[in-house]
Amino acid sequence: MSTAGADIWRPYEHEPVLTPAMTGGHRATPPEEMDRLRRYLEAVVHDRRGGPVHTAVAFNAAYFGYEPGGEGYGNGAFDIDAFPSLTLGGETPALPVGALVRIETGSDPLYAEIVYKEGRPPAASDGVDIPAWASGAPADVEGPGERHDMSSPVRRELLVPDLTAFGSALQLPEAKLKRFRARQKWLNKDGHVVVDARYASAHEAALDDSAAFVHHLLTCQRESLLSPLVPVSVVQLAGGAREEWLREALTGLLDAVEEALRTSDALRSWGHYALARTRIGSGLCHDGPLGEADLYALTGSLERVAAPVTRRRHGMRGPRTVHTAIGPWLRDLDGAGPLLTGVEYAVSVCRANLAVADFVRRDTDNGLRTGSGVRITLDDRFESGGVWRSHHPGADEVPAGEFSERRTTDTEEVPEAPLADDALADETIGIRNYLRITDSELCWQAPLRLAHLMEDRLPLNGMVRDRLRRPGTDTLPVRLELGHPGGMLDASEEVQEVTLDLTGETGMLRGIQWPVDFFPGLRIYVQWPRGGTVFRLSTAELEDPVDVDGQLITHRYDPQVLTRDGAPGSGRDGDSSDGLDTRRLVLRAVRRFGRLTPDGHALLDRAALPRGIYATDPAAHQATALEQAVDELLGEHHLYAATGSRGADGEPHYPAREGEAAIPLIGYAPNPVVLPRPGTGGHGPARGTGAEHFVHGFLRRLPADCRPTDVQRAAYREYCRRIGKADGWELPRGYTFVTAHSRRR
Length: 745
Known about the structure:
The protein is 27% helix and 24% strand. It is of the alpha+beta class.
């Protein structure tokens, strides 16, 4: 891995590292452009002491021209006096990671980039076992049951500034910074800033990191964003200055940057933060505080805090749930204080969370420590450096959290089950596991069944019904908010007024207007704020679309339900075998009545096939046509042959059991074919994929003895007019302007 040299982009010396294709996200970006961006970002991460570098900070580097080697943003296109102002302990409009700020000191302000932030509830300073109400709580919650109805919620947040981002010219002497930390007037003792962050609305407080940062760029940081002094303007990349074009282009650029960080072999990511692997490794190699022994102790403590005591004198211990905050846990370690100052605190928090995540992924069964019966899951990534939830007993608990979702692999053994022919009535197929259970909300996923589409309904979880049920009340009017990224969604479908039916075993949403491209098997992610009457439903795009028997699928789906409910003759307009030829009747029977495996295969006893097609024994000509159709489908690999066995009780089994009579089976395999995702770049000029590519005009630094020509000065003034700046802008001293051109790769 190289982090220096001619192949690493240098602002104002090489053509811009951000390209028009990247406005469509990483899927629309040619591999060679992603490689170039990735190499540059690796150099940035290593230059910034190994990280962590948030996606927003990485975007700032690529867009505003961060120069590794000490200069940083020293040559950037900023009016530093226009930066948002921060005061330790004060109230300020909420700022995202990546914000460029001015920290007031009473004399010389500190100019910095916010590289990390986390929530700081009042309980965060009381110990590492934080109360349940603080984990995952919205911004307007200040205590258990204390939620304020306010249009502008306020949340206490810890911000970690990087005071070296603007180079040596804007840095204060280290001795003066130490005095600031000692006095705890402008910075706290760790060199951080704790503020009361005011959000414009509850909606703004709920934005994810990327959306919040895009909003910040288009509002607070707009002047810098649209400066003609940046390596390449987003107006050029987007093909115009319309607000929706800029927002779409910025979203795509952030996606490309995040993918470049995530796919780097030299980096590891914790959420939106990337660290150099060498930085992580060096921390594990020493024997002092925050080394391997301490991280091992952390992972072990998550199990011990909820595990039952071996011997008790007064009966059995009841269920126990403990929430452990990573930041306070690290601060509790002897000798760790000096290692948790400045940006090093963010490094330590990310390293600790990665250690726990590795422990959960590798050394537990779906987050469950089988020896102790404790389940460990991530409950809140943001609060107090990350909050992990330990619960006992975990064996009977539905898995929760990002690191406990079960995934079946090709090598995982499929549980044995009878080859029953009544699977058509089975309402339990498909994955139905909780994604998240907190004190403020329930989130889960469920596959969309054909019956749900045809009857405009969706079953819920029984916990929802139990918490909303009232004596004498069988139905409630509720609001449904539907998200379908990358799909077809009418405005009338985004927010719907539907009915919650509380009479069944689980509760049911009725009267749903499903989008036209929803299909049986589509995974639905449901979020329900506890006690509320709003249900948020969403889908998730696949990394790459797939083709399954001629059906294009672009969103995550359940293969079992797709096999069962997507059989020939099934559809939203009806469910009938009328009009199907014999071949399609065979395929329908295998898919509808065969035993399902987790990856969507269906296996049927060949002797049971006629019963799945005809109500009575088929006539001779029907039996002949049926056998011919089976042979054709096997020969064309639409079906495959397998061998099972039949027990003494007459039940068929697969895999075949030793000592039982072998029987022939026929199987269906969905065999999804991965397709290339079409490019969806920005609104700029058309770009070919051949040997040439288009390069927008950009600033280039000149050698000391060179001057730009009048033609180049005029071209720069025209460029400024095109991106919306008034006439009169002149080339900055020491730079020339390279006009737009096509360049052979």
